[in-house]
Amino acid sequence: MITEKDLLTAINQLLAEEYPQTAVYINLCPQNFIRPSFFLEHVTTSCRDKSCKTIELTVDYTITCFMETDSHYHVDAESLMERQTEVIALFRSGYIMVGDRAVKVKASSSGFNEGEAYVDVQFEFCDDRADEAEEPTLISTVTTKVKLKEGESWDFQIST
């Protein structure tokens, strides 16, 4: 079973490998954060039935890209756009390894704000239902009585 935390760890690892000198903040960005950096947050998880034993999950994350500021706290828009494009390219293969599974992934630009660029990352995969019932206990012995005629009967016992 793949969890949201597993996906978060996979994204974090990918960013850390590509940008080893860049901080990655997860689910909480401090007030005086370091630049350049990334802020990684879980947005939504949706679940649909696929079969009686399988569900299809769609999990969305947002990666916020921060670049250095000048003395007036302005960010170079061109470098910010380049960083956003580079991050999107990290997911270009269409999948990301999570444990021993290759999970389908899509990345897209979701705009800019003053000094920030956003990348939406969406995972889609099927998984087993978490609430799957335990295997039923099998019967080990069956005992039955068969009546043949009035007053006559045979007892049978079958064991596995």
Give the SSE layout:
Elements: H1 4-18, E1 23-26, E2 37-49, E3 54-66, H2 77-89, E4 95-98, E5 101-113, E6 116-128, E7 141-149, E8 152-159
Parallel strand pairs: 1-2
Antiparallel strand pairs: 2-3, 3-6, 4-5, 5-6, 7-8
Question: Could you describe the 3D structure shown?
Answer:
- By secondary structure, the chain is α+β, with helices and mostly antiparallel strands.
- It is 18% helix and 48% strand.
- The chain has two helices and eight strands.
- It has helices at 4-18, 77-89, and strands at 23-26, 37-49, 54-66, 95-98, 101-113, 116-128, 141-149, 152-159.
- The chain has a six-stranded mixed beta sheet with strand order 1-2-3-6-5-4. The chain has a two-stranded antiparallel ribbon with strand order 7-8.
- Strand 2 (37-49) and strand 3 (54-66) form a beta hairpin.
- It is rod-shaped.
Relevant terms:
160 residues, alpha+beta, 6-stranded mixed β-sheet, two-stranded antiparallel ribbon
Q: Rough shape?
A: rod-shaped
Secondary structure class reads alpha+beta
Total helix count? 2
Runs in which pLDDT lies below 50 for 5 or more consecutive residues are none
- Average of per-residue pLDDT values: 89
Q: Please summarize the sheet with the most strands.
A: 6 strands, mixed
H/E element string? HEEEHEEEEE
- Strand percentage, roughly? over 45%
- The count of β-strands is 8
Gyration radius over CA: 28 Å
How is this structure best summarized?
The chain is of the alpha+beta class. It is 18% helix and 48% strand.
